[in-house]
Amino acid sequence: MDDARLKKRVQEIAESVKNVRFEDLCTLLDNHIKPFCEARGLSYDHRNPPGSHHVFTVGSDTFSVGKPHGQGTSLLKKRYVESFLEAMEKINLYE
């Protein structure tokens, strides 16, 4: 995914923070944000310790994303999406 499409995807997430699926965000981070960071010499790490939270380091920012639990839900809580967006802002993928 080129930079323009990546920025557009992050913007789409920002426009619907209450409608972001856990799987979609993890896929975006691991398959697109990771190569973006690596190409620019920025750090990227995805840790999945025991439990329901995944911890990401993007650039100098570390944030966690809690996997939704409960029947019939796969949408993330707003605070996790906002943490993601703050990290994207610091690497110039979101304004």
Structure description:
The chain has about 100 residues and is of the alpha+beta class. About 45% of the residues lie in helices and about 15% in strands. It has helices at about 5-15, 20-40, 80-90; strands spanning about 45, 55-60, 60-65. The protein has a three-stranded antiparallel beta sheet with strand order 1-2-3, covered by helices on one side. It is globular, with a radius of gyration of 13 Å. The protein starts with a helix and ends in a 5-residue tail after the last helix. About 20% of the residues are buried.
Features:
3 strands, 3 helices, 95 residues, three-stranded antiparallel beta sheet
Quick take:
Helix content is 46%, strand content 17%. It is α+β, with helices and mostly antiparallel strands. The mean pLDDT is 94.
- Estimate nothing, just give the exact number of structural domains: 1
Number of strands: 3
Q: Whole-number radius of gyration? A: 13 Å
Determine the oligomeric state from the structure.
single chain
End-to-end separation: 19 Å
Major sheet strand order:
1-2-3
Tell me the number of helical segments per DSSP (H or I, 4 or more residues long).
3
β content, as a range? 15-25%
SSE layout and pairing:
Blueprint: H1 3-15, H2 22-39, E1 44-47, E2 53-58, E3 61-66, H3 78-90
Antiparallel strand pairs: 1-2, 2-3
